[in-house]
Write a structure and sequence with these properties.
Blueprint: H1 2-33, H2 47-76, H3 88-116, H4 130-159
Helix pairs in contact: 1-2, 1-4, 2-3, 2-4, 3-4
The structure holds protoporphyrin IX containing FE (HEM).
Protoporphyrin IX containing FE binds next to helix 1, helix 2, helix 3 and helix 4.
Protein backbone atom coordinates (compact mmCIF):
# COMPACT_ATOMS: atom_id res chain seq x y z
CA UNK A 1 0.00 0.00 0.00
CA UNK A 2 2.76 2.41 0.99
CA UNK A 3 4.63 1.58 -2.23
CA UNK A 4 1.54 2.20 -4.33
CA UNK A 5 1.09 5.55 -2.64
CA UNK A 6 4.75 6.55 -3.11
CA UNK A 7 4.82 5.53 -6.79
CA UNK A 8 1.48 7.30 -7.30
CA UNK A 9 2.97 10.56 -5.98
CA UNK A 10 6.19 9.91 -7.98
CA UNK A 11 4.14 9.48 -11.16
CA UNK A 12 1.89 12.49 -10.44
CA UNK A 13 4.94 14.70 -9.92
CA UNK A 14 6.43 13.42 -13.20
CA UNK A 15 3.09 14.13 -14.91
CA UNK A 16 2.95 17.69 -13.55
CA UNK A 17 6.60 18.40 -14.45
CA UNK A 18 6.43 16.93 -17.96
CA UNK A 19 2.87 18.15 -18.58
CA UNK A 20 3.53 21.76 -17.62
CA UNK A 21 6.79 21.89 -19.60
CA UNK A 22 5.20 20.27 -22.66
CA UNK A 23 2.11 22.48 -22.59
CA UNK A 24 4.06 25.69 -22.09
CA UNK A 25 6.99 25.07 -24.45
CA UNK A 26 5.26 23.11 -27.22
CA UNK A 27 1.78 24.68 -27.33
CA UNK A 28 1.27 27.82 -25.27
CA UNK A 29 4.35 29.89 -26.16
CA UNK A 30 4.27 29.13 -29.92
CA UNK A 31 0.55 30.06 -29.95
CA UNK A 32 1.23 33.32 -28.05
CA UNK A 33 4.06 34.24 -30.43
CA UNK A 34 1.60 34.08 -33.35
CA UNK A 35 -0.54 36.85 -31.79
CA UNK A 36 0.14 40.42 -32.94
CA UNK A 37 2.54 41.97 -30.39
CA UNK A 38 1.50 45.42 -29.04
CA UNK A 39 4.45 47.80 -29.57
CA UNK A 40 4.32 49.86 -26.39
CA UNK A 41 3.76 47.06 -23.90
CA UNK A 42 6.78 46.40 -21.66
CA UNK A 43 8.24 42.90 -22.03
CA UNK A 44 7.38 42.02 -18.41
CA UNK A 45 3.67 42.27 -19.29
CA UNK A 46 4.00 39.67 -22.04
CA UNK A 47 2.46 36.20 -21.86
CA UNK A 48 5.94 34.67 -22.35
CA UNK A 49 7.31 36.44 -19.25
CA UNK A 50 4.33 35.47 -17.09
CA UNK A 51 4.31 31.86 -18.30
CA UNK A 52 8.05 31.28 -17.83
CA UNK A 53 7.92 32.98 -14.42
CA UNK A 54 5.43 30.35 -13.21
CA UNK A 55 6.88 27.41 -15.14
CA UNK A 56 10.37 27.37 -13.58
CA UNK A 57 9.29 26.98 -9.89
CA UNK A 58 6.52 24.53 -10.87
CA UNK A 59 9.04 22.23 -12.55
CA UNK A 60 11.47 22.61 -9.65
CA UNK A 61 8.75 21.70 -7.13
CA UNK A 62 7.77 18.57 -9.07
CA UNK A 63 11.42 17.54 -9.44
CA UNK A 64 11.94 17.94 -5.68
CA UNK A 65 8.87 15.75 -5.03
CA UNK A 66 10.31 13.18 -7.49
CA UNK A 67 13.64 13.16 -5.66
CA UNK A 68 11.94 12.93 -2.24
CA UNK A 69 9.56 10.11 -3.16
CA UNK A 70 12.29 8.27 -5.14
CA UNK A 71 14.70 8.28 -2.18
CA UNK A 72 11.94 7.37 0.28
CA UNK A 73 10.87 4.48 -1.97
CA UNK A 74 14.42 3.11 -2.02
CA UNK A 75 14.76 3.50 1.76
CA UNK A 76 11.49 1.74 2.58
CA UNK A 77 12.26 -1.11 0.17
CA UNK A 78 15.90 -1.66 1.06
CA UNK A 79 15.33 -5.25 2.28
CA UNK A 80 14.01 -6.22 -1.20
CA UNK A 81 17.13 -4.96 -2.90
CA UNK A 82 18.92 -8.31 -2.50
CA UNK A 83 16.41 -9.78 -5.00
CA UNK A 84 16.98 -7.15 -7.68
CA UNK A 85 18.34 -8.46 -11.00
CA UNK A 86 21.93 -7.54 -11.94
CA UNK A 87 21.92 -4.35 -13.94
CA UNK A 88 19.17 -2.66 -11.92
CA UNK A 89 21.60 -0.20 -10.38
CA UNK A 90 23.36 0.39 -13.72
CA UNK A 91 20.04 1.58 -15.08
CA UNK A 92 19.37 3.49 -11.87
CA UNK A 93 22.77 5.23 -12.21
CA UNK A 94 22.00 6.27 -15.79
CA UNK A 95 18.63 7.61 -14.64
CA UNK A 96 20.35 9.59 -11.87
CA UNK A 97 22.63 11.31 -14.42
CA UNK A 98 19.51 12.67 -16.14
CA UNK A 99 17.89 13.51 -12.79
CA UNK A 100 20.97 15.50 -11.69
CA UNK A 101 20.91 17.46 -14.96
CA UNK A 102 17.18 18.16 -14.56
CA UNK A 103 17.68 19.32 -10.94
CA UNK A 104 20.59 21.55 -11.97
CA UNK A 105 18.64 23.14 -14.85
CA UNK A 106 15.50 23.73 -12.75
CA UNK A 107 17.50 25.33 -9.93
CA UNK A 108 19.37 27.53 -12.45
CA UNK A 109 16.11 28.53 -14.18
CA UNK A 110 14.34 29.35 -10.91
CA UNK A 111 17.04 30.94 -8.80
CA UNK A 112 19.30 32.51 -11.40
CA UNK A 113 17.50 33.33 -14.66
CA UNK A 114 14.03 33.94 -13.20
CA UNK A 115 15.44 35.91 -10.28
CA UNK A 116 17.52 38.05 -12.68
CA UNK A 117 14.40 39.53 -14.26
CA UNK A 118 11.96 39.51 -11.35
CA UNK A 119 11.08 42.58 -9.25
CA UNK A 120 11.72 44.95 -12.15
CA UNK A 121 10.11 47.80 -10.19
CA UNK A 122 12.88 47.54 -7.61
CA UNK A 123 15.66 47.03 -10.16
CA UNK A 124 14.60 48.80 -13.39
CA UNK A 125 18.15 48.48 -14.76
CA UNK A 126 17.43 44.73 -15.26
CA UNK A 127 14.74 45.56 -17.87
CA UNK A 128 17.28 45.45 -20.68
CA UNK A 129 18.14 41.84 -19.74
CA UNK A 130 14.55 40.63 -20.17
CA UNK A 131 14.46 39.60 -23.88
CA UNK A 132 17.77 37.69 -23.81
CA UNK A 133 16.93 36.05 -20.45
CA UNK A 134 13.49 34.94 -21.67
CA UNK A 135 15.10 33.39 -24.76
CA UNK A 136 17.62 31.58 -22.56
CA UNK A 137 14.82 30.36 -20.25
CA UNK A 138 12.90 29.01 -23.24
CA UNK A 139 15.93 27.12 -24.57
CA UNK A 140 16.83 25.66 -21.17
CA UNK A 141 13.19 24.68 -20.54
CA UNK A 142 13.25 22.75 -23.84
CA UNK A 143 16.41 20.97 -22.70
CA UNK A 144 14.76 20.22 -19.31
CA UNK A 145 11.75 18.72 -21.10
CA UNK A 146 13.95 16.36 -23.15
CA UNK A 147 15.97 15.30 -20.08
CA UNK A 148 12.96 14.75 -17.81
CA UNK A 149 11.23 12.65 -20.50
CA UNK A 150 14.34 10.45 -20.76
CA UNK A 151 14.51 10.17 -16.92
CA UNK A 152 10.88 9.13 -16.86
CA UNK A 153 11.42 6.52 -19.60
CA UNK A 154 14.33 5.11 -17.58
CA UNK A 155 12.08 5.08 -14.48
CA UNK A 156 9.43 3.03 -16.29
CA UNK A 157 12.15 0.66 -17.54
CA UNK A 158 13.53 0.42 -13.98
CA UNK A 159 10.12 -0.50 -12.52
CA UNK A 160 9.83 -3.38 -15.01
CA UNK A 161 13.47 -4.51 -14.98
C1 LIG B 1 13.39 13.79 -13.04
C2 LIG B 1 13.13 13.01 -12.04
C3 LIG B 1 12.41 11.69 -12.11
C4 LIG B 1 11.47 11.23 -12.98
C5 LIG B 1 10.86 11.96 -14.17
C6 LIG B 1 11.11 9.88 -12.56
C7 LIG B 1 10.16 9.09 -13.18
C8 LIG B 1 9.88 7.79 -12.82
C9 LIG B 1 8.87 6.95 -13.44
C10 LIG B 1 7.96 7.39 -14.57
C11 LIG B 1 8.92 5.74 -12.85
C12 LIG B 1 8.09 4.52 -13.21
C13 LIG B 1 7.12 4.12 -12.13
C14 LIG B 1 6.32 2.91 -12.53
O1 LIG B 1 6.10 2.70 -13.73
O2 LIG B 1 5.87 2.18 -11.63
C15 LIG B 1 9.96 5.78 -11.85
C16 LIG B 1 10.35 4.74 -11.05
C17 LIG B 1 11.30 4.81 -10.09
N1 LIG B 1 11.96 5.94 -9.64
FE1 LIG B 1 11.87 7.76 -10.50
N2 LIG B 1 11.84 9.57 -11.44
C18 LIG B 1 12.65 10.63 -11.13
C19 LIG B 1 13.52 10.74 -10.07
C20 LIG B 1 13.84 9.71 -9.22
C21 LIG B 1 14.79 9.78 -8.13
C22 LIG B 1 15.61 11.04 -7.77
C23 LIG B 1 14.84 8.55 -7.54
C24 LIG B 1 15.65 8.05 -6.38
C25 LIG B 1 16.59 8.65 -5.79
C26 LIG B 1 13.90 7.71 -8.24
C27 LIG B 1 13.67 6.39 -7.95
C28 LIG B 1 12.83 5.57 -8.64
C29 LIG B 1 12.74 4.14 -8.43
C30 LIG B 1 13.54 3.35 -7.41
C31 LIG B 1 11.80 3.67 -9.34
C32 LIG B 1 11.43 2.21 -9.61
C33 LIG B 1 10.51 1.66 -8.65
C34 LIG B 1 10.42 0.14 -8.89
O3 LIG B 1 11.47 -0.51 -9.02
O4 LIG B 1 9.29 -0.31 -8.96
N3 LIG B 1 13.32 8.44 -9.25
N4 LIG B 1 10.52 7.06 -11.84
Amino acid sequence: MQNNFLIFIHLMAAAVGIGSLAYCILFFLPAMEKLPQPQKQPEEHSATYKALEVLAPTVLASVLVLVGTGIYYLLTNYTRQVDLPPGYYDLFGIKMVFVVLVVFLSVYLTFSLRARISNLDLSPESRKLVPATLQQMKTLSQATLVLIVIASFLGIWLARF
